[in-house]
Amino acid sequence: MKINRYIIALVSIVLFFADGFGAVKITGRITDENNEPLEFVSIRVSGTAIGGMSGLDGTYTLSAPETDTLRLTYTLIGYMEASRRLISPKGAVTVNVKMEPRHYELKGIEVTDYQKQTGTMQKVDADDYKLAPAVNGRSVESLISTMAGVSQTNEMSSQYSVRGGTFDENSVYINGVEVYRPQLVSSGQQEGLSIINPDMVGAISFSTGGFPAQYGDRMSSVLDITYKTPETFEGAVNLSLQGGSLALGSNSGRFSQIHGVRYKSHSSLLGSMDEKGEYDPRFFDYQGYMNFKFNNAWSASVLGNIAINNYKFIPHDRKTNFGTSTDAKQFKVYFDGFEKDRFETFFGTFNLSYRPSKKAEYTFLASGYLTNELVTYDISGEYWLDQAGTSGSGGSGGIGGELGIGRYQEHARNRLKASVMSFALRGANGLGGHNINYGLTFNHETLRDRSREWEMRDSAGYSLPFDPDALKVIYNLNSRHDLSSNRFSAYVQDTWRIQSSAGYVNINGGIRMSYWDFNKEFLVSPRINIGFVPDRAPRWAFRFATGLYYQSPFFKEFRQPVEDDYGNTVIELNSDIKSQRSYQFILGSDYTFRAFNRPFKLSAEAYYKILGNLIPYEIDNLKVVYSGVNSTKGSTMGLDMKLYGQFVEGSDSWISFSLMNTREHLNGKVVPRPTDRRYSVALYFTDYFPKFPKLKFSLRGIFSDGLPVTAPHTTRDKGYFRAPAYKRIDIGLSYALLSPPKEGETRSGFLRHLKSVWLGLDCFNLLDISNVSSYYWVTDVNNIQYAVPNYLTRRQLNVRLSIDF
Predict the structure, then answer these.
(1) In whole angstroms, how far apart are CA 687 and each of 377, 692, 697?
(2) Which of 56, 336, 438, 633 is the most buried (most CB within 10 A)?
(3) Model pTM?
(4) What's the CA gap between 197 and 350, in Å, rounded?
(5) What is the pLDDT of residues 316-355, one digit of tens each?
(6) If you compute the radius of gyration of the chain from its CA atoms, what whole number of angstroms results?
(7) Shortest CA distance to 694 belongs to which of 647, 648, 739?
């Protein structure tokens, strides 16, 4: 049986390449009803294994044996199947075909299958998050955090970790330009709004590793956002107890524009935390995206962003209960002081595009990014650490239960001004079945850092660390630097699509090169990924990716803390710093099937990363503190799985499951990396009620392992423990006051201007679980340190109104 298969395959290959005696050479061009070329049309010679695919210009070439009759079949999704019959063909034959679009009577749309993923970039439906319950407000990141391999364990933050990497290892692109996040943010309370405006998003692509060479020097992931171009006048209004947003767009044919304004203030949410006080967070964001078409070949676009985030806090008191049922403790603090933070971001891009044909496009890009960040606080506190049920000076009653008493004072005046000016030339050309992309980029970066922070602790009447001859503080840091540097990068990549008798093959290979004049480092990053959909088993899709990836340092990574003779910490910029390195190997597959007469897709990816030139770091809440030197190496391996489908008919949901193991060789010991989350389960579920079709239900749940935790100003090789697992469920109910119009439905009066109106009720942290974000460390009278947990937000209700018009 196997021999027969080999003979058939060999004969098919011989016939496919035959162009001599007894062969018919068939060429032609395939177009649509407007005479525009159609690419990726599948052409088959009926009764044989001979086939091919049209190129970017719609042309194709086949060779077939001479026979009395040849029947050619042309198929393409969205078009009606076409066929041509050739009677006694000989020599060279030209067959041009015009394909007609397939029209459907849309009484209802039934999804019968899901798109197969043959590359490392997966498409994410931008509509999935619009009614999702999320503390950070329908953000793209809250949706991404439910993907396999992704973890986000601070509901007030848009930052996430991918396959053991830090927040800094994720790159985000908007309309082809890499964007940056504020550098001095250390907690979710400060962060404010994500740079991505969900009302303006048109397409989302995301990769958890093995991404192509066109994306920059990051080791973990790529989030590629494309803002939409409105088809006509349209808009959206979203209001909730946490803020609101307005988006307006229009299109006049040659000129289109969309603008979005957002405002957020989650003081009521912060009030559910242990630390009580006067919270005054105010976050504002404006974005505008405009396109102009000069003609069919030339077009230009402009994207602008202004973000102003203010966070003010006057703490009053705090009471935290922690420990176990047999060893319960209570931490009580009375505060004095304030915190005032300000983060200003200005971002703009200009894009000039020239497209002489459907298979060629050339682009000039210019962008500018400016951040002005200020973090200031002067907070003092008096604390009591007691056994639960007893109290010291901070409570009422009990003797002998007091474990520790003391005072502390924290001071910071941290300022950062940074700018990145970027200029790029990019091109794309289609050659047969190949799509070649290439580009050159120049970045000019400036940094102005002025940081001064210290902390004093007085425990049991002694200032820590105790010195009988001098008054010392437990922590003191000073940084004062100005830096100007340049980066150059270039890439070229080829995407090759092959349709053979064995199946569909997608190959993407490329190389990326970069140079940074601060450390005189030149990097070469080769990458390749291969996807395959077998013709005999079309429900399966397989993919393999490998490559060498680098994490180019930016501000935080090369700041090296150095301690002087007086115990003060001074930040120096390490010009000998090297980019962190990651060799990645990824093997994945998709299987699509139908169950309960509904479509499903099961995906799995196994990965292994060999890490070198690592810069050790520790994590405190959202603050990543690097050592500033390349001193370690390590590895990461894991398995990600995701089941996606219509668990309820007409509504997409998914569940993802991840296992991961990380290792780092730190100071002669093997320890887990600070982002070592050994397991994670995420669920996004949507449902509707058959008897109440206007009522929709959505659920977002995360259950993931806790991270390794160390005491302040120390490292994991000296000891660590794991924080409790992160467990959270958010639910939402949405009622359609005005449902989206059905096909052919018309409205009269004022309602004709509205698409839909939704009224929603959300319950955040349904189970009211106290999740830990970080720890505050207290030393008792016996010089024993206690880690007092800093808890995240508790259960909270939210009401929202969404209007699309």
Answers:
(1) 46, 11, 5
(2) 56
(3) 0.83
(4) 18
(5) 888 888 877 777 888 888 989 998 999 999 999 999 999 9
(6) 30
(7) 739
